[in-house]
Give the backbone structure.
Amino acid sequence: MSEQPERPIQFGPYLLEKRLAKGGMAEIFRGVSSGPHGFRKTVVVKRILPERASDPKFIEMFIREARIMVRLNHPNIVQVLDFGEVDGRYYLAMEYIRGTDGGRLLQSCAKMRLQFPIPVALHIVTAVLDALDYANTLQGEDDKPLGIVHRDVSPSNVFISRLGEVKLADFGLATLASGEDPAEAGIIRGKYGYLAPEVVLRQPSDHRADVFAAGILLAEILMVRRLFQGKNYLDVLLQIRDAKLDRLHKYGKKIPEELRQILYRALARDPNQRYQTAGAFRDALQHFLFEHRQLLPAATLRRFVQKLFKQTGHDVQYTPTGSGFEPLPVPAPTARLSDVDSAAPTNKVDVGDTRTNHRTHGGADFDASVAAQQNVVAAERNMDSLPPPETAGRLDNTSLISVMFHLAVKSRTGLLVLKNGKTTKEVYLVQGDPEFVVSNDTSELFGQYLLSQGVLDPQELNEALRVMPEHDGRLGETLVSLGLLRPMQMLRLLTHQVRSKLLTAFAWSTGTFSFHPEATCDKPSIPLGLDAFEVIWAAIQELPNGILEERITSMLDERPTAVFPPPVPPDRLRLGSYPREIYERLDGATSLDVLLQDARTREEWRKLAGMVYMLVQCGLATIDSLPNRANT
């Protein structure tokens, strides 16, 4: 935000000279602390807003930030000098960095078409990684790791002084291992252009989310462009969710191949495939600099930033789109999304309760139940136009697990049609992974799902369905545009609902399947980025009570035997080391009943039984009573 000159005011021991920024929770000032004999020290004062001063939730968040930051004492972290309360308003006093933040520095370089020298770019990011490694591994008084995760690593939170110092700031969204996980609490915080895929998907996240954000930071410094950029906020979220690095491929051609490989690893979609610590990422960058004899003298960064400051000053404003490092897209004015990130460092994404008052758009009332029936009929008409299937069968002879596994391994694209009685489900696959699911069960429509979850009321859904044609028939985007859902919430709910439609089919013991290659979805949809192997494993774990037990009972006396060589390595399942651990225990001499006796709890029993069942159904193991299903 631009600096706003104000008349100096006295606030406790500090004279607040100029307000630098204002966010949703606090405002930031440049202040002065005075003492005897002409002592003066310039500081930054962050104080809670008057309207938040009586809100226990915001006070607790502010105090939590103070508790975390007071523990941090590192040359690459902005130092907290004081914490207190004046007239009911809490504040933090921090060291003042005479310089600029990374966002404005990137804007300056983009405007002047100036590239960062690679040693300069890597020096900045290794300093940030050093700060993250320190924070992530910091121990408490009991010598146990505190588990601090920053959760808001972005250019605007990286400060570069005129002397070339690099400091990471704003641990306001940081969490402790012993504290509340924002994802578990239903809250996703952070600038939406710098989230990790697991955060977008609302999966458990840890310090590796900071590694991903640092990877974005490095890519943007090297390209002087946004890594994730789209025409709207939803495009950005989808790119992050899928770790889509098209812009890095396009604009990062001058980045040395070895350095690109380091970036690809830091930006891996799967946290297990990334550098597992910020320190490991830092070490890889330092090794690159050493091998290429590009170690940076301390004065080089200082000269680089001072040259920029002489030409632009430290208060460079954000420039219009087209300068290279474009601002992130902002939502439509009608959307109630004041906390979506733009240029301001304090804007956050929050997917908490988003209920809003009903809005009137004119026109006749629209009946949601009628729209649902129309959608079902359209889906059934589409079935009649499909060409003959490439493969088909009965689900009582070939399990859906085996069918999905076979299509995933061969990276098939097309339509998998599942029928059970009057219920029909269309599963659209792209390279083997489920992209979208259509059901003719009206209870499984997205609108009905939102009603059942209490997210919308019938009047709000009717309103959205009526204006949905104005948004290309996409209900989710319509709800976001009307301000009834926020982007992160819509994406999370839609992913969960579509995934649930598919998971319920795995419980079917009767019915038919058919696969129609190269058929594509002609209905308005958002690609959901589901992983076939994760869906199969989740379906087994979430089988209704009694179904897994029933299927396992017939196998208890059997001696599962691992298929060697396996049709695919167990690691291909992308489920960590667990599939291989169980695969290697299936020696053909031990009955399943004996294997399951190792389980100490009901949860362990279901996990072990489920994995053996999955390996057998996928053809990685055999038992006498079932054929090898690898070639289903």
About this structure: Confidence is low (pLDDT under 50) at residues 178-188, 314-323, 331-381, 627-632. The chain has four domains: 4-95, 99-312, 368-532, 543-622.
